[in-house]
Design goal:
The chain is an alpha/beta fold. The protein is built from eleven helices and twelve strands. It folds into two domains: about 190 residues, Isopropylmalate Dehydrogenase; about 140 residues, 3-Layer(aba) Sandwich (Isopropylmalate Dehydrogenase), CATH 3.40.718. Helix 1 packs across helix 9. The structure holds nicotinamide-adenine-dinucleotide, 3-isopropylmalic acid and manganese (II) ion.
């Protein structure tokens, strides 16, 4: 029995998470997976009502009582500062020390890529995004705010320990999954200090993995090559901010944010799984959001918990559903969020 904390969050979060939960119930029946799901109402509504984003003791409770966390999205136009989302999402990533943001970029059907002539075999890589430091450290400040002389600083932090553990995780993943190449993206031609640390650590770690090709690219060039030649990537490792941007680009080449899954992982500890997309306010409440990103995220979570076969079966069902055109409108279909979720559930077969 595994215990899962479910945090649907804001906007389309609850709509897509409801479908991911249906899929989890289906694999409970079909695959004998045993889960206990406990829902939490953390998000904008509660923040606006009670002023509480991440309740006191929440992180300790998650670590003590749960095996994994499944979250939707956080962000609401009524909270323009985005402070609740920062407290909840970045609070869990940092507070639980979830240093790996694992974001697969995998084409599920040829029809979904906007790139001419690209196939499923060509677009299949994983991004290891550093998830606890970099530009997300919140360091910086204002001087003379609101005056013509205003100064705003925004710093980034790169620790040797932080860089080393994400680079090592990328190489270790490559070794375990038979990947040939790890590509590290930075902007070390401009960001001379942080970039220098990443370069040195990357070379040191790469030396421990002789069978894997270690390649470096500047992140701007990588953005271009992801579009022109996505087949060259196997495993990509990069910092927090570049990883955020590159994984939306990665989603774009495989059908959009509606299909992109992600895990925030600290191996061996309670880890957080959430789709790459946000709360998409313009889509919220309309029943049009694509649940595939959330459903594949639930599959990633199952794999993390050791239910590999159930995870593979969900992925197979999703591919079949896309091939049959039983999708929401972002993928060219006409189904609602719930109908698309049900179409996937129906295709999940037992062991
Ligand atoms: P977004 O990912 O919410 O949406 C961008 C666009 O992508 C949408 O307008 C829609 O066209 C498409 N899209 C996203 N998810 C989709 C889905 N499931 N099905 C179909 N189409 C989908 O990004 P945004 O508009 O830049 O941000 C909206 C809010 O979400 C902001 O408050 C932002 O901070 C937040 N956000 C949260 C997370 C998170 O919680 N992990 C991630 C990204 C953005
Ligand atoms: C993501 C999101 C978050 C990020 C935001 C909402 C803080 O864009 O998960 O990709 O920048 O990491
Ligand atoms: Mn993002």
């Amino acid at each position: 029995m595994k215990r899962i904390a479910v945090i649907p969050g804001d906007g389309i979060g609850p709509e897509v998470i409801a479908q991911a939960v249906e899929v989890l119930h289906r694999v409970e029946q079909a695959h004998g997976v045993r889960l206990e799901l406990v829902h939490f109402d953390w998000g904008a509504d509660r923040f606006l009502r009670e002023g509480v984003a991440l309740p006191d003791g929440a992180l300790q409770m998650l670590e003590r009582d749960f095996d994994a966390i499944l979250a939707g999205a956080f962000g609401d136009p009524r909270v323009p500062s985005n402070e609740h989302a920062e407290q909840i999402l970045l609070g869990m990533r940092r507070g639980l020390d979830l240093y790996i943001n694992l974001r697969p970029v995998r084409l599920l059907h040829e029809r979904l890529t906007p790139l001419k002539g690209r196939t499923e075999a060509e677009i299949d890589f994983v991004v290891f995004r550093e998830n606890t430091e970099g530009a997300y450290c919140g360091a910086g400040g204002f001087l003379k705010r609101g005056t013509p002389e205003e100064i705003a600083t925004q710093e980034e932090i790169n620790t040797r320990r932080g860089v080393e553990r994400i680079v090592a995780a990328a190489f270790e993943h490559a070794r375990r999954h038979g990947r040939q190449r790890v590509t590290m993206a930075d902007k070390s031609n401009v960001q001379r200090f942080g970039g220098d640390l990443w370069q040195r650590v990357f070379r040191e770690v790469a030396a421990r993995y002789e069978e894997i090709e270690a390649e470096h690219q500047y992140v701007d060039a990588m953005a271009m090559f992801m579009v022109l030649d996505p087949g060259r990537y196997d495993v990509v490792v990069t910092n927090n901010l570049f990883g955020d941007i590159l994984t939306d680009l990665g989603a774009g080449i495989v059908g959009g944010l509606g299909v992109a899954a992600s895990g925030n992982i600290h191996p061996g500890r309670v880890s957080l799984f959430e789709p790459v997309h946000g709360s998409a306010p313009p889509l919220a409440g309309k029943g049009v959001a694509n649940p595939i990103g959330a459903i594949l995220t639930a599959a990633m979570m199952l794999e993390y918990l050791g239910f590999d076969r159930a995870a593979r079966e969900i992925e197979r069902a999703v591919r079949e559903q896309i091939a049959a055109g039983e999708t929401t409108r972002d993928l060219g279909g006409s189904l609602s969020t719930a109908e698309a979720g049900r179409a996937i559930c129906r295709r999940i077969v037992g062991r």
